[in-house]
Amino acid sequence: MLKSEIEQRAKFDIIRYAQVWEDADLLIEALDVQPTDVVLSIASGGDNAFALLAQNPAKVYAIDLSDAQIALCERRKEMYRTLSWEEHLAVLQSEILPQGKFERYFKMFREKVLPLIHTLKRIDQLVAPKSAEERAKFYDKVWNNRRWRLMFRLFFSRRVMGKHGRDKEFFKFVVGSVAARILSRAKHALTNLDTSENPYLHYILYGEYKNAFPYSMRPENYEKIRANLDKIEFRKQSIEDFIENYDGVIDAFNLSDIFEYMSQDGMDKLYDNMLSKSTVGTRFAYWNMLAPRSANNSRIETDEHKNREFLLKDKAFFYSAFYLDKVVK
């Protein structure tokens, strides 16, 4: 069985992510999944695999290196099958999401750090509906105080995030200040994007979705997902092993941010292997958080201007780059 590069350096025996911290709205727009498409998705917490399922594809394969993540996804699949939207949401927020290491990291920020910086009233003001001009003014005059900058840089440092949020091995290929880059993206999210409609921001600040939900948990998408549950298959498997053993064509890839956990040479080799299971029109979507990674292959094209436009509206604001590559020959 082929292993991923990161699998040889980090452990995957826990629920690291109880939800997906990548914007499904952006992913759906980029991949433009059609009813005849076969999709390969990184499973993680399941949200984006289920969001892609709502597009009525022919098949979704959702893979992950972690038995714990796959078990979580299978439970969420059964919840879609048996629970109402209200029941699913209640179980998700009370029982599922608190299990994730990354979610517990944000709980620590919400309960231990944020109260040292801002009051609950001020947090409510941050997410209240405002114009872009009003959001920028609020950030500059009220939110972005000295304590915010200091505590943010400490809490989202490479050392603290590597210990309590992600894994230190995930930073192997990262150069420069982790906190400074995330702070810059946070400013973008709090000023240029609508804070009242950002579910990722709401969960960080409140520990629940409030009135803004990720795509897979919106009431209008719930029955679409339920109707297609037989089309999704979760597998505990590396992407290298899946590609090696899959006999067919993949039309769309949701690759999360897996490339920043491997060397550029490792990415190039994996990308070549994935291209062997692609055809003209196949789409690849992936994010960079901190380590810059992009494909360089004559069979693909990527629109850098369009990629920047995607990133500018990315509500999951940690990432520094987004790529949509298309196979053209």
Architecture overview:
The structure is a single chain. The protein has 329 residues and is an alpha/beta fold. Helices cover 46% and strands 11% of the residues. Strands 3-2-1-4-5-7-6 form a 7-stranded mixed β-sheet. Helix 3 packs antiparallel against helix 4. It is globular. It starts with 23 loop residues before the first helix and ends with a strand. 39% of the residues are buried.
Indicate the CATH class of the largest domain.
Answer: Alpha Beta
Reading the helices and strands in chain order gives: HEHEHHHHHHHHHHEHEHEEHE
Radius of gyration: 19 Å
- The chain-level mean pLDDT equals 92
Helix content: 40-55%
> Beta fraction of the residues?
5-15%
How many domain regions? Answer: 2
Using the alpha-carbon principal axes, give the shape: globular
- The chain-level structural class is alpha/beta
Number of strands: 7
* Uncertain residue ranges: none
Give the second-level CATH assignment, the architecture of the largest domain.
3-Layer(aba) Sandwich
* Helix run count: 15
Full CATH superfamily name of the largest domain:
Vaccinia Virus protein VP39
By oligomeric state, this entry counts as: single chain
Strand order of the largest sheet: 3-2-1-4-5-7-6
Main sheet overview: 7 strands, mixed
